[in-house]
Design brief:
globular; mainly alpha; about 5% strand
């Protein structure tokens, strides 16, 4: 029975074009990264008059301090309306990345891997195109506003790029492993570790949100918390990879023994 299941799985996965899938995700993520950078360049021009009203003479390349909600309201209905639109755009961005991943995947594992590749590529190329279009960020330690949902996330540009690089590497490895009939089997403990690590990373980005939304300058970034989250998340996936290799050998060994006996 195990052998029949394995053969059926092999027949399905042998036809999975993982290289073409990865290339498509990289192309989509890169194009989406440019689109995001272009939108941000327009938004900065749109919001700059309001920023100059409250912080005259402050260079456009310096994002902080952010305008408070009271200042945004005082700047007029147009400025306040764009804030709600921006939050909706962020939600739509995540939905689009999830949708392209879903269209390329054959199961939940592949969907998660494809989403990781698309998201990571989008994020990294977003900063690369911002550098080309606006000459920003000045360096990898320049602070940025990462997300607004559910509260503002802020941190040095290097931090989200490290997360994205890890996501791309894990996603490519996952799809490659599935196509080579060596799937990474994720148990509850592995998922708990990955989501736990991701939660710690999010906390490291969002822990200063009260100060940021009050119009303050960012406090020192918690690299310790960020590193802990990265270690927990990557370590949990590496643990799943190691256990999956052992599990595959246990499945194949009886089949090989049976064939040898025949």
């Amino acid at each position: 029975m195990h052998r029949l299941l394995f053969v059926a799985y092999a027949n399905v996965m042998s036809k999975f074009p993982w290289k073409r899938t990865v290339i498509a995700l990289l192309l989509f993520g890169s194009a989406f990264g440019y689109l995001e950078a272009a939108v941000v360049s327009y938004l900065r021009q749109l919001h700059e008059p309001a920023r100059q009203r409250f912080y005259p003479g402050r260079p456009a390349s310096e994002l902080f301090p952010l305008l408070t909600l009271e200042q945004v309201r005082a700047a007029g209905k147009d400025q306040h309306g764009t804030l709600a639109i921006e939050i909706g755009r962020e939600a739509a961005t995540l939905l689009m990345l999830a949708a392209i991943a879903l269209g390329m995947a054959r199961n939940a594992r592949q969907w998660a891997a494809a989403f990781a590749i698309a998201f990571g590529t989008w994020d990294i190329t977003f900063y690369l195109f911002l550098k080309i279009l606006l000459g920003w960020p000045a360096s990898l330690v320049t602070w940025d506003i990462l997300f607004l949902i559910p509260v503002p996330w802020v941190g040095p540009v290097l931090a989200p790029m490290l997360v994205s690089a890890a996501m791309i590497a894990a996603g490519v490895w996952h799809l490659r492993s599935e196509a080579r009939l060596k799937p990474v089997r994720m148990g509850m403990a592995h998922w708990a570790g990955i989501f736990g690590g991701a939660s710690i990373i999010v906390i490291s980005f969002a822990m200063d949100y009260r100060n940021i939304t009050a119009g303050g300058m960012p406090n020192r970034f918690s690299w310790c918390a960020f590193t802990l989250g990265m270690v927990v998340g990557i370590g949990s996936y590496a643990w799943a990879v190691k256990q999956s290799r052992g599990g595959l050998q246990k499945l194949i060994a009886p089949m090989q023994s049976a064939e040898a006996a025949q």
